[in-house]
Specification:
With about 375 residues, the chain is an alpha/beta fold. It has a domain at about 5-225 and about 320-325 and about 340-365: TIM Barrel (Alpha-Beta Barrel), CATH 3.20.20. The protein contains eleven helices and 13 strands. It has helices spanning about 30-45, 60-65, 85-100, 120-140, 175-185, 195-210, 230-240, 245-255, 265-275, 305-315, 330-340; strands spanning about 5-10, 45-50, 75-80, 105-110, 145, 150-155, 170, 190, 220-225, 280, 285, 300, 320-325. Helix 1 (about 30-45) runs parallel beside helix 11 (about 330-340), helix 4 runs parallel beside helix 5 and helix 5 packs across helix 6. The longest helix has 19 residues, at about 120-140. Mean pLDDT is about 90; it is low at about 360-368.
Length: about 375
């Protein structure tokens, strides 16, 4: 099966030689993050995730616009729902897609925005309303929608995407509200690392939720990777990565993220708690990265054959898209590309997504 293999550009100050020890040369900047993306492009990765943060790093939309004419791979732009009004966001994304000649994909993020806190259910309700209206506008249709968070009557922007249709929506979240939101509106459901058995369980649950809405999801995996010529060297590299991290530093880093209390983060903590003394919850799945990271907190660790076998095991479990990263990101991107990428049958995900399952009008007539 052909899979999509993507890399990660550390736009949110998440690049280290030693976790917890900031290196001025690895802080997010135009030149540093550009070097990661051009490395991924040179090696033939299919896509690159451009994360979004508020307090940390650089703006991913401005970065994507700058990189658009310099690259040939897809870009997976993280979009935080609620930060921009939907018509403005639609025009922005359509413009980016034109600059990329149709290579834009979108990572829908439902975390709190700076200065406000919402409970899980209304936050994901907002995300679904944004996804619905955004999809309609990017598909070239007018919107007449009055929901709990998005209320607008507007024609689509004159400028459209290259294909005339919306880019794919990638989305992740484990809480019940997040799963319902994903089933109704996502195209690719992203999972943070977990045991293969748990991946199968989550996929089965999401398949059932989507089927009830007449939809079908594809599935992605977002994790780190450490590949070396031997398993011993890979495990030594993992240990070295943590060799200068204190418990206090790790806790401070984890708490910096706006989503540090989410169900997904709690699941990564539980995964770490279930690991052995060396941090391995499965032979080649190491949870040590999560000691200094609030999000995806585990890495596939091993020699080229072992990493390849783990990826194929996950593919057999239903994963079609992989987003990898490693520390330092440009160096690990190079190692993975030389040792593993040539052995994978890979290419950009391409399919026609199902309609988003939401009622066109949610508010009473009086609300208008």
């Amino acid at each position: 099966m052909t899979i999509e293999v993507s890399w990660f550009s550390a736009l949110c100050d998440d690049d280290y030689e030693f976790l917890g020890r900031p290196d001025p040369a690895l802080l997010s900047s135009w030149e540093h993050c550009r070097s990661i993306v051009t490395t991924a492009d040179r090696y033939g990765y299919d896509n690159v995730l451009l994360p979004s943060g508020y307090a940390l790093g650089i703006d991913n939309t401005a970065f994507a616009a700058g990189m658009a004419p310099q690259t040939s791979l897809r870009m997976l732009l993280a979009v935080r729902c609620g930060e921009l009004v939907v018509p403005q966001l639609a025009r922005q994304l359509a413009t980016l897609d034109q600059m990329m000649h149709g290579r834009l994909t979108i990572n829908i993020i439902s975390s709190d925005i700076p200065g406000e806190t919402l409970d899980s259910e209304p936050r994901y309700r907002r995300a679904l309303e944004v996804m619905y209206c955004l999809r309609e506008l990017l598909d070239g249709r007018p919107v007449d929608f009055w929901g709990d968070f998005v209320r607008l009557t507007v024609d689509p922007p004159r400028i459209g995407t290259v294909s005339g249709a919306s880019p794919l929506f990638y989305f992740g979240g484990l809480s019940p509200a997040a799963r319902e939101c994903a089933a109704a509106g996502a195209d690719v459901f992203l999972m943070w690392p977990d045991t293969t058995n748990k991946v199968r369980q989550v996929k089965a649950d999401m398949d059932g939720r989507a089927a009830k809405l007449g939809r079908r999801l594809r599935y992605g995996w977002r994790s780190h990777v450490i590949v070396r010529e031997t398993e011993g060297e890979a495990r030594a590299a993992a240990s070295r990565l943590l060799s200068k991290l204190t418990v206090e530093q790790g806790e401070a880093i984890r708490q910096r993220s706006l989503d540090s209390t989410s169900a997904g983060v709690a699941n990564q903590t539980a995964l770490r708690d279930a690991s052995d003394d060396d941090g391995y919850v499965e032979r080649h799945l190491w949870t040590g990265v999560g000691r200094a990271r609030s999000g995806a907190g585990a890495a596939i660790v091993g020699d080229p054959d072992q990493v390849l076998a783990k990826i194929r095991e996950l593919t057999e479990a239903g994963i079609e898209a992989f987003i990898f990263s490693g520390y330092p990101h440009a160096a690990e991107c190079d190692l993975f590309a030389r040792h593993v990428l040539p052995e994978l049958d890979h290419g950009p995900l391409a399919f026609t997504p199902d309609p988003i399952a939401i009622q066109p009008s949610l508010a009473t007539a009086d609300a208008r």
